[in-house]
Amino acid sequence: MDLSKTVKQNSNEFFLALTMATILLNFSCGKRTPPVPPKEKVAQTIELNGFQRGNDVILSWKMPLRNARSGSTLRIARADIYRIAEPLDSPLAMSEEEFASRSLLIAAYKITDDDFADKTLQFLDRLTFADQPVRLRYAVRLVNSQGQKAAFSNFVLIEPSGKIAEPPSQVRAEVSQNAVRITWEPPEKNIDGTVPANILGFNIYRSESKAIPAKLLTATPIKSSEYNDEFFEFGKTYFYFVRTVSSAADGSPVESSESKIIEVKPIDTFPPTPPTSLTIAASPNAISIFFPVNPETDVVGYLIYRSTDQTLPKDRWELLTVKPISVNTYKDENVEAGKTYFYFVKAVDKYGNVSRPSEVVTEKLP
Fold first, then answer.
1. SS3 for the chain, per residue?
2. How far apart are CA 78 and CA 123, in angstroms?
3. How many Å apart are CA 9 and CA 57, to the nearest integer?
């Protein structure tokens, strides 16, 4: 018997058996614990902001671009908004667990397909003021289409004040050549009914569409109850409103809700001023007229009138320029020697408004 051959054969059989046992063991383990699909992660948390305006607390947040896990198929379905009303001397710090157990769900904000891609959303919490001062603590959490909830946002703490003035009333607009004049009546009381109204001043807003956020026109609150908007264009439509500005308990400015929104479309019906300082000069075959350009920026030309009879009504004088001329000089070559001629000039703006006649100048052709 060849001993070395027998040992080699037994060794091969041992390793073959060991390999088969390993394969069977792995196969058996796979049967007992099937693969688990990856768990869908909950949507991202958000950064919450908030402030008081009138008797509203306005909360805002930016929507995330996607869920926390790249490639997620579960969309964000809503934003749950929570609130706690707590005494002013309550500790500022609070755990998420305590907030979750004490807070009240005040709204479930439905998220649409248009509310993604870093869009900022807003929620208004309308307040009713009582005698007891409170601190309001807000947080928002996103919920996906399977009901899975994200962690709470940061907490926003608001100490609302009832001593905020009501919005102005009787807002009106008056259009002139140089400005849209906005006037209003100041409020007489605060939103909690107390008097006198807590007024620091007023902020004026304007937009060119109800769908476009309004632009603040005043750098600081103004004290008067009128404002002249000098940066406007005739023919455009504008929307104006005014907010009262009050002083909060900590001295910070707080706006009221907006006044009634008024719509204004300024139409230029204002004629330019008549040309002034006309000069006239005669040469052997012509009479020339000169005058400074008008100060109005919308003046597009001038009309030249002539007569040989100064007593003739001006609406019967001869119009020498069929169309307004754009220069501030005119040379009249249709003249006769020895005759005296009288002239006046009118300015015309781009809206077709015509000025009153200028002064009359006269010259006799040699």
1. CCHHHHHHHHHHHHHHHHHHHHHHHHHHHHHHCCCCCCCCCCCCCCCEEEEEECCEEEEEEECCCCCCCCCCCCCEEEEEEEEEEECCCCCCCCCHHHHHHHCEEEEEEECCCCCCCCCEEEEEEECCCCCCCCEEEEEEEEEECCCCECCCCCCEEECCCCCCECCCEEEEEEECCCCEEEEEECCCCECCCCCCCCCCEEEEEEECCCCCCCEECCCCCECCCEEEECCCCCCCCEEEEEEEEEECCCCCEEECCCCCCEEECCCCCCCCCCCCCCEEEEECCEEEEECCCCCCCCEEEEEEEEECCCCCCHHHCEECCCCCECCCEEEECCCCCCCEEEEEEEEEECCCCECCCCCCEEEECC
2. 12
3. 86
Q: Are 217 and 204 in contact (CB under 8 A)?
A: yes
- Hey, what are 192's tokens? 């909690």
User: What is the distance between the alpha carbons of residues 341 and 103, in angstroms, rounded to a whole number?
Assistant: 91
Residue 364, CB-side half-sphere exposure with 13 Å CA sphere: 4
For 310-323, write each residue's pLDDT tens digit.
Answer: 999 999 999 999 99
Residue 160: asked if its preceding bond is cis (omega within 30°), the reply is no
Taking residues 248-259, what's their average pLDDT? 93
- Whole-prediction pTM: 0.76
Mean pLDDT of 317-340: 96
* Integer-rounded Cα radius of gyration of the chain: 40
Query: Which residue from 206, 196, 204, 212 is spatially nearest to 245, judged by alpha carbons?
Result: 204
pLDDT band at 24 (very low <50, low <70, confident <90, very high): very low
Phi, psi at residue 220, to the nearest 5°?
-135, 155
Taking alpha carbons only, the member of 317, 327, 333 closest to residue 347 is 327
